[in-house]
Specification:
- The protein is α/β, with parallel strands linked by helices.
- The protein is built from 4 helices and 5 strands, in the order E-H-E-H-E-H-E-E-H.
- The protein has a 5-stranded mixed sheet with strand order 3-2-1-4-5, with helices on one face.
- The chain is globular and about 35 Å long.
């Protein structure tokens, strides 16, 4: 899978747990969730927690530029974003609703699933998953 800026992404990467948030630009609830993911990425880095973060757009019709603008709007432009082409990630992790965050451990097992958790919860769950 590739991010919207062309970087190759694998989940999980290099033995790190990952926080993955499923969203759509048109989803009002998703604004807070992607914002929390962005804050969690900053908080985790400051705490020395080595984890991966990814925002996954579930609507393959949304253009890259629109997603980039959305990520900037919610202060999460530092988090890689990808489009879930063919619903590959949604199916792999059994995500059926927008605004879902999952934490995946280094072995690819989902250890946490929630709707719009705050940044502190995301960081705590990454820590539990072995970050």
């Amino acid at each position: 899978m590739a991010s919207i800026d062309g970087q190759q992404i694998s989940l999980p990467a290099a033995g790190k747990p990952a926080a993955v948030f499923f969203f759509s630009v048109g989803c009002g609830e998703c604004v807070g969730g992607v914002g929390s993911l962005g804050q969690a990425a900053i908080d985790a880095e400051e705490a020395g927690i080595d984890a991966q973060f990814l925002a996954v757009d579930m609507d393959p019709r949304e253009p890259r530029e629109t997603i980039e603008s959305f990520m900037e709007y919610v202060d999460a432009e530092h988090v890689p974003a990808a489009i879930d082409e063919g619903a590959a990630l949604s199916q792999r992790f059994e995500v059926v609703a927008l605004s879902t965050l999952i934490v995946v451990d280094a072995d690819g097992k989902v250890t946490f699933r929630a709707t719009d958790p705050d940044a502190d919860t995301i960081v705590a769950e990454l820590d539990k998953a072995g970050a």
